[in-house]
Design a protein that fits this description.
alpha/beta; seven-stranded mixed sheet; 8 helices; 21% helix; 29% strand
Length: 374
Amino acid sequence: MKHPKILAIVLAGGSGSRLGALTASRAKPALRVAGTYRLIDVALSNLVNSDISDVWIVEEFDPHSFNQYLSGGRPWDLDRSHGGLVLLPPFSGDDEKAGFSHGNSDSLWRQLDRMREFEPDLVLVLSADHLYGMDMRGLVEAHLETEADLTMVTTEVSEDASRYSVIDADPDGRVTDFWYKPDQPQTSLVGAEIFCFTAGALFDALEHLHEELGELSDYGDDLLPWFVENRTVVEHRLDGYWKDLGTLSAYWEAHMDLLAGTGVALDDPDWPIFSGQRPLMPARIESTATIGRSFIAPGSLIAGVVESSVISPQCTVREDASVRESILFDRVTISPGVHLTRCIVDTGAVLTSGTYGSPDRVTLIDAEGNVSEG
């Protein structure tokens, strides 16, 4: 069988408003994961480990520092003369596809001409908002074997499924029903926002829907329901860890899962997570420090208490300070007498006094020290 030509499109344009101050001035894919990685590292490493090297990133919100971090794809070996990483920011001009998109379906439609020119056999579409590990080769093989027009990666969730795309499938794996963020989910099987499209079917659908509707929005509203109703759609089950990091509580829970050893494996030598991490000195742990089950990133200084927490690079926790079940972003300073419980503290914050957080909710502290609850 001829090896298919695969194009991967990573949708990284959302503003991530449900994450509050964490995404007020940074793209969501640039968020820290486990103290040293960025969320985009996970998506790109899954693709590279799956031998997929033609990767386009669709951008919109605050791409400047994000692009600097991507470094043309160098950390993931995607800085290539032919193919590799391509960044697709919004553009102006007379082309009707210019400007900012109105949702992820519209984002795909605005890249339709470029996709046609690339002439792929398959188009993988994935979000940069999720934490998981997955070999895309299994997805591609399943898609080709079933001769589907669209294969949706699915996963079972134990939480409320109403904030996801909910699906139902027959015993053969064919998707029979689809509900986008339903008030009362009929099943606990949700879409993981990883899709494998037969390229021609995707292109025709985008063209048809745009002509019919005049404007596309989110693929849960238009593209996916149309495929389920008019084309062959099958599911491909992801049995491992998967988490949407779109809310503060979900972001915090994912890190507690990592600390507990029940989250996604970010230290698998057979499935490495590549990253553009800065070279820094190892963390310094003073004799006054007490540390229990935590991640301490390079460049940090710990002299106080850190328990079940994630400490990003160049943070300082002074003596007589405590950080419990919390996440500190880069260059945070926790001064003597400051005590945190279940807090997420944004980059550069300097806390000089007080007790923050509580055991029953997640508290966000922005770079200026302002407090909000998730």
